[in-house]
């Protein structure tokens, strides 16, 4: 089961969950990698549902091997790809991984779940895409990252701003490097309706998490909203957290549960899957 670190902001808040997972072995096969991720996120989602979270998000590259990305291999990355249904027809179910994510997101509460995936379109193009599922497994929103990092693997999509409403709250979406660029941040800020909460999966590495954390604080202050960040970086420099008005709402950093570095010099990961819960009064 996932360990839970709880942080409270007000007495009658909405609770949000940030998923943190341990590292994956680059020697794993595609099947082993996906099975491990599904098990890790199942633990986190189960804990989040029990904690009463309104939304739980996972980091960038949730279901994509960094080994494939670092090799710049589009063909290898496609093996981790998610094919979304092209229609609402019951016969159009997407691929097996998409069905697994739907099943993982389903819950008997009212919790939304967000995963970042490598989306494959009908032309075999790959996009860095963040999905938000409802508690029934319906896709509420899909956002394709505009400021792509692995350019030899992912396509740069047309400009898109994603804002959706759930239970009277407007949610926006950005991914990692997007926050450091004028667009789509400016368009999201000027959107109608404006987002109250922004879903933000990120993948920083090692000490790079520190400047990302600063950027997230500044972004939340400039845009007057709550920023939910789940960072693939599970070192003590991780930028995972919840930010509002330039401040972190975490009173206990999840990095306390991580080691600084393992014996080989790599930044350490927790021995267990962790769910950070933060309660926010909107």
Please explain how this structure is put together.
- It is a single chain.
- The chain is 23% helix and 27% strand.
- The protein has helices spanning 30-51, 66-70, 74-78, 96-105, 182-189, 209-223; strands at 3-8, 14-20, 55-57, 81-83, 112-120, 126-133, 139-144, 163-166, 169-173, 197-202, 226-231, 241-244, 247-248, 274-280.
- Strand 8 (163-166) and strand 9 (169-173) form a beta hairpin.
- Helix 1 (30-51) runs parallel beside helix 4.
- The longest helix has 22 residues, at 30-51.
Name its key features.
single chain; 282 residues; alpha/beta; six-stranded mixed β-sheet; 6 helices; globular; disordered N terminus
In a nutshell, what does this entry contain?
By secondary structure, this protein is of the alpha/beta class. It has six helices and 14 strands.
Q: What is the tally of helical segments?
A: 6
How far from one another are the termini?
Answer: 29 Å
Shape designation: globular
Mean pLDDT value: 81
- Percent of residues in helices comes to 10-25%
Structural class: alpha/beta
Assess the beta-strand content as a share of residues. 25-35%
Rg calc: 17 Å
Q: Please report the total strand number as a whole number.
A: 14
Uncertain residue segments = 3-12, 252-271
What is the ordering of alpha helices and beta strands? Answer: EEHEHHEHEEEEEHEHEEEE
